[in-house]
């Protein structure tokens, strides 16, 4: 609860129903109250003991705290760059490059930790849910009648699994500063992509054949920006809508110069939302409704 309440110093009491949320709803749904139990379980696990044994073995002849901390910082820089260039057209056609960047950043973080880097990973209850999800995927793969195809899917899922621990460990060391950098990278890239998409709508860009249904008579302009696929663009923009709106609300309830950032951020949120609408993706529209409804 304290972690959720402290992020961004957001005064929930100033928001409608803020006191009800802070005192009644949040304590019941927050998983952080189970973090101590999960940390204790992890300390006694075979996986954790193997990690400590490997770290202790390497520390006897490979102990370079400064280099380790530099590698961990470099890992975060790669994560920030990844979020910034995520909508690049190269990644729309070749997801393997994204996997290489993620695995490279994760390797830097692991090596940095092994040689004495100062950043430490703090396990949370959400880790258990991620492990459970990974276990379900492993069982489903082993029980599949199409094992080779399922293994390929499991390899993709492994990249997502690694990504979770990479992103959490990279940001949790300094959550306010690093979280702000990551959100700025996400919204900056999303804003530029959205503006490019809106320019496509004004000129009536020609549709891409693989993305159009020949049975639909209505040939309205569907924007796709650099991602070359309206549905893919919508999938990229949908999560940014509640993020941008949440950041705007956080700015508006602050005092001083921070409040002045609220209106421009609302404008960014509006542009991203409009671009998502103009993709013509029905799944994107549903995502907008769910995201705004939750907000």
Query: What is the helix content?
Result: over 70%
Provide the gyration radius in Å: 22 Å
The tally of strands reads 0
| Dominant shape | globular
Low-pLDDT regions: 1-9
**Main sheet?**
none
SSE arrangement, N to C: HHHHHHHHHHHHHHH
Question: What is the CA-CA span between the terminal residues?
Answer: 19 Å
The proportion of strand residues reads under 5%
Structural class: mainly alpha
Count of separate DSSP helical elements: 15
User: Oligomeric status of the shown chains?
Assistant: single chain
* Averaged pLDDT: 84
TL;DR?
This protein is an all-alpha fold and 295 residues long. It has 15 helices and no strands. Helix 11 packs parallel to helix 15.
Polypeptide structure, described:
Helices cover 72% and strands 0% of the residues. Mean pLDDT is 84; it is low at 1-9. The chain has 15 helices and no strands. By secondary structure, the chain is mainly α. The radius of gyration is 22 Å and the shape is globular. It starts with a helix and ends with a helix. The longest helix has 29 residues, at 175-203. It has helices spanning 2-6, 18-29, 35-43, 46-59, 65-85, 89-93, 96-114, 125-142, 147-172, 175-203, 230-237, 240-252, 257-260, 262-278, 282-294.
How would you summarize the topology of this molecule?
Elements: H1 2-6, H2 18-29, H3 35-43, H4 46-59, H5 65-85, H6 89-93, H7 96-114, H8 125-142, H9 147-172, H10 175-203, H11 230-237, H12 240-252, H13 257-260, H14 262-278, H15 282-294
Helix pairs in contact: 5-7, 5-9, 5-10, 7-9, 8-9, 10-14, 11-15, 12-14
């Amino acid at each position: 609860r304290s972690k959720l309440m402290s992020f961004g110093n957001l005064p929930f009491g100033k928001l409608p129903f803020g006191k009800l949320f802070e005192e009644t709803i949040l304590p019941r749904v927050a998983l952080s109250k189970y973090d101590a139990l999960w940390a204790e379980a992890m300390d006694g696990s075979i996986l954790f003991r193997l990690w400590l044994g490997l770290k202790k073995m390497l520390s006897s002849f490979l102990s370079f705290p400064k280099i380790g901390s530099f590698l961990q910082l470099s890992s975060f820089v790669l994560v920030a760059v990844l979020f910034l260039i995520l909508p690049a057209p190269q990644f729309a056609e070749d997801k393997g490059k994204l996997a290489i960047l993620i695995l490279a950043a994760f390797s830097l973080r692991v090596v940095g930790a092994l040689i004495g880097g100062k950043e430490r990973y703090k396990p949370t209850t959400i880790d258990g849910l991620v492990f459970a999800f990974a276990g379900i995927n492993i069982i489903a793969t082993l029980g599949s009648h199409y094992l080779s195809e399922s293994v390929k899917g499991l390899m993709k899922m492994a990249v997502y699994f690694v990504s979770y621990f990479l992103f959490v460990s990279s940001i949790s060391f300094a959550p306010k500063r690093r979280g702000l950098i990551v959100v700025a990278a996400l919204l900056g890239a999303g804003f530029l992509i959205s503006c490019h998409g809106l320019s496509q709508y004004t000129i009536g860009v020609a549709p891409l054949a693989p993305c159009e249904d020949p049975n639909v008579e209505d040939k309205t302009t569907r924007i796709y920006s650099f991602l070359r696929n309206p549905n893919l663009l919508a999938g990229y923009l949908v999560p940014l809508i509640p993020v941008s709106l949440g950041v705007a609300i956080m700015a508006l309830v602050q005092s001083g110069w921070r409040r002045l950032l609220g209106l421009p951020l609302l404008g960014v949120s509006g542009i991203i939302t409009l671009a998502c609408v103009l993709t013509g993706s029905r799944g994107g529209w549903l995502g907008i409704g769910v995201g705004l409804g939750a907000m």
